Amino acid sequence: MSQCAIAYYRVSTQRQGRSGLGIEAQRAAIARFADAQAISILDEFTEIETGKGADALDRRPQLAGALALARHKGCPVIVAKLDRLSRDVAFIAGLMVQRIPFMVAELGADADPFMLHLYAALAEKERRLISERTKAALTSRKTTGMKLGNPTNAAEAAAKGRQISMREADRFAQAVLPVIASIQRSGITSLRGIATALNNRGIHTPRNG
Fold first, then answer.
1. Bridge partners of residue 103, in order along the sequence
2. Helices (DSSP H) in 41-153: which residue ranges?
3. Does the structure show a pLDDT above 80 at 27?
4. What's this model's pTM, rounded to 2 decimal places?
5. Which residues contact 66 (CB under 8 A, 6 or more apart)?
6. Could you report the per-residue pLDDT of 127-161, keeping only the tens digit for each?
7. Answer CATH for 3-119 from 3.80.30.20, 3.50.50.60, 3.30.300.30, 3.40.50.1390
8. Quick check: 92 and 86 in contact, CB under 8 A?
9. Which residues of 36-54 are buried (b: 16+ CB within 10 A; e: fewer)?
10. Ranges of each domain in the chain
């Protein structure tokens, strides 16, 4: 008998929602994952809303609906990527407290809540480090008198830069997950222990910087 699940898709802007490209890519990723894991999708919830802000869940009735149905049916919620829930570690942690299991197609069926929390924390820190390095480089260029680009497209360039940094941070966090799994198999399962083991390998975590 196949396992059941609720699918949740999200894009941040009306433009993305109208294009259907972001939603369709998420739907295809979840369909492939569900097929590989013999999971039956009971229902789908689609949201066009940013994941930012402390009140993000209040502004996302579709996510609330997915959580309620998952709780009623006793099944997990599946997303294509963890950032479709949120990029904010505190928000992810708050969802985990509700004790509704989540599955992330991109990360595979073996990524448990502990791993998902670590993934979010690592990605968040890597984004911050990338931002700090970028700002430091720009400051250095300014002090040497170098002219920095065309001010008319500064906003567009900044937006593209943020997208690149988010992709790089996600790749970094995903690359670390197999290392974390190896550490867990060695018998180290506490957050502090895993953070120490990662730092010993030269992979700096939010806990140990």
1. 78
2. 61-73, 89-97, 113-143
3. yes
4. 0.68
5. 6, 7, 8, 43, 45, 77
6. 676 677 677 666 766 677 655 555 555 555 555 55
7. 3.40.50.1390
8. yes
9. eeebebeebbebbbebeee
10. 3-119, 153-201
